[in-house]
């Protein structure tokens, strides 16, 4: 028999051995007395395999004789150590010897399912059987040599250890800053920590003694529906966000429901964890408003509230591309406010800003929703009229001018509100770029301004 091959199959299949042992434990209900965490079972398999490999390295099958001293046997020594560990956990000799048979079965299954030759499988199976026999001998020797006094002392020590663990748990549970509520499998409150009592309940008393006759519908409030839904789900945990009325006022929590499972994975209740995100939400709202403000200023002229130069050029570029695709008419109008320099020099720049704002307000009120006005420079504006011919824009400009004249009749200002303009109509065959379009409209606007100057309608030159 190739003992190195035997050793390798044991060492290389730790996961398979662990899964097999856990499967047998669940099937035979041994997991009700121990953990179902895979890592706990991995440690048991690792310990058994390590001792087994030491024996394999000695080649011979570990047989037993009537005069053998099993207290000095390396294999039995491992069994003695394990007996001491499991006895202190309250496991009986019969219980552990019974389950050791299923550990042994896992190792024998591994050999049976391997590609060993039949005679190799028989040899390895016998080897494993003798190995587990000696482990069991170690258990029996340790248990039979224990006096009643020693057993009582051991149980007392175990009880003290359990009490210390309980106190440690309670200390941690009470000191957690976030509120925690524990409910049983019927969703009745079993325990709460100090923070939960302080925030949610009428009396600052934590612990389950206070909750013998508690009204869950009242105390859990709007959470009871979510909790009932959660217990019906196959999910082990869920997160939800909820605003709750507390003794400290209205607060928003990120709430986690997490199922509590015992060592046999049976549902025993739910842990409800409350993470207060009220301040974080407020900060998120502040940041959101700041971002919205930054975005607004990135695309908007702050003084007039119309689109800024960057936005206007982007819109024009998109409209030109759309016009090429669809053949839809497009007209743009380049505006320049008349008399701004004279108003600035005579009345000050604040009054000049009032002039600009008044004109842009009237223009905006006259335009359609799909039309856009952008401030290109100090007193220069670009108005885009999708789907409009030049004649349509001329009519729109006339309406704006009429509005401005009516405003001047009622105004006590000593200057007029007016502008010069140039209109460019773009057809389906247009090949002009954004700059070409603006330059062409700009030239028309200056021609219009020159006519008004010659008619002495503009007094700033």
UniProtKB/TrEMBL annotation:
<dbReference type="InterPro" id="IPR000160">
    <property type="entry name" value="GGDEF_dom"/>
</dbReference>
<feature type="domain" description="GGDEF">
    <location>
        <begin position="328"/>
        <end position="461"/>
    </location>
</feature>
<dbReference type="GO" id="GO:0005886">
    <property type="term" value="C:plasma membrane"/>
</dbReference>
<dbReference type="GO" id="GO:0043709">
    <property type="term" value="P:cell adhesion involved in single-species biofilm formation"/>
</dbReference>
<dbReference type="GO" id="GO:0052621">
    <property type="term" value="F:diguanylate cyclase activity"/>
</dbReference>
<dbReference type="InterPro" id="IPR050469">
    <property type="entry name" value="Diguanylate_Cyclase"/>
</dbReference>
<dbReference type="InterPro" id="IPR043128">
    <property type="entry name" value="Rev_trsase/Diguanyl_cyclase"/>
</dbReference>
<dbReference type="GO" id="GO:1902201">
    <property type="term" value="P:negative regulation of bacterial-type flagellum-dependent cell motility"/>
</dbReference>
<dbReference type="InterPro" id="IPR029787">
    <property type="entry name" value="Nucleotide_cyclase"/>
</dbReference>
<dbReference type="Pfam" id="PF00990">
    <property type="entry name" value="GGDEF"/>
</dbReference>
<protein>
    <submittedName>
        <fullName>Diguanylate cyclase</fullName>
    </submittedName>
</protein>
